[in-house]
Amino acid sequence: MRASPFITLLSALSAAGLMFVCLFAGYSPTTLSSVDMFSMNVSRIANTTFNNSTGNGCSCVEFVNGTLTINGSAVTDGHTTVEVYDIGISEYYAVYTMNYCEGNYLPHYYDKGAKAVLTSCKTPSVSRRFDLVSIIEDALENVGASLNQTLSLDDLDWPDGITNAFGYVSSASTAMIAFFLIGILFLLLATLAGTIALFRPSKNITVILLMTSVIACMTLAITAGLATGIITTVVNGINSNGDDIGVSASQGNTFMALIWSAVALLFVSTLTTTAQLCTGGRREPGRRRRRREYDGYGYHMPMSMGYGGHMPHHMSHPMSSRSMSHHMSQPYHHPSSRYDPWDLYGSRRSLVPSHMDDPYGEDDFR
């Protein structure tokens, strides 16, 4: 087994495994939950209370120290007894390639050693996008309906920098998913071609392997670049603007390491395939090649004009079977030659001049 095709196949298989880990992460709260693109702590917003019983005489909405105070009457199920209302969102969000999960901090979000625990995940979808701004706006709309008030992000002193960050990456997220799926498709084709090239090497298979490897490497490199840009934009946008409202984000280092490692492995696979193609692709082992040369296989070896016996097929003259049989059934015999095709020693006897009477002796030819 040669080393170059084996390294090519091993690199492609490893890259495929890493990409599938990134693709299937977050399908459930316990499925590769640590391979997130980025995560967010919104525990302070999630625990904001909405109070409608201040009675300070003004028709206003005030957000102070985690409490949004509203002058007016809350209406829930036809009753006006509700004075405090929670926004009703999760404290923690983890965003993955094709979906996102949500959870809370245990034992409490304000404890120093609190840990985030995922409780549910959305159904994976190619069209699913995570937008924290939309989630909070929907929650505020529900709270406002319960309090008989119209609420918006401005009531929470929500910074525009976070809203802009999610707006910037909206189109990039769609492009990332498209390149991700295209790259995985060509990666699978490259893996199949690499398997065939390992056991049945040929130049055509090597060319197909090189083409699929190059396309997979390029598309997944674009995917990794887009993912890096999305993660950097969102995390920096949240952390630089979210201190005042208690929102923070962290990038997924595991995801970044896996996706760039897959690109590096595909680059190695492409290099080994290129080297294999440049060095001639398939080569016979030395012992088999020398034996074939010794036996005369594949070489043009014309027959003696007077040869009347049989030759192996691979040593025969390139002519039709009909002309070959005619040529072998009627050997060439020059009238002035003493060569007899049925004489075992005719080839040696023909070297003796006709005027000499067998100077070597008759016994020499026995």
Automatic annotation (TrEMBL):
Lineage of producing organism: Eukaryota, Fungi, Dikarya, Ascomycota, Pezizomycotina
Disordered, as annotated region: 312-332
Biased composition range(s): Low complexity: 317-329
Any Pfam family matching the protein: SUR7
GO cellular component terms, A-Z: cell cortex of cell tip; plasma membrane
Signal peptide limits: none
InterPro entries cross-referenced by the UniProt entry: SUR7/Rim9-like_fungi, SUR7_domain
Protein name: Uncharacterized protein
Bilayer-crossing regions: 176-199, 206-235, 255-281
Keywords for this protein: Membrane, Transmembrane, Transmembrane helix
Gene Ontology BP, a term: fungal-type cell wall organization
Domain of life: Eukaryota
PANTHER family reported in the protein's UniProt record: CELL MEMBRANE PROTEIN YLR413W-RELATED (PTHR28019), SUR7 PROTEIN (PTHR28019:SF7)
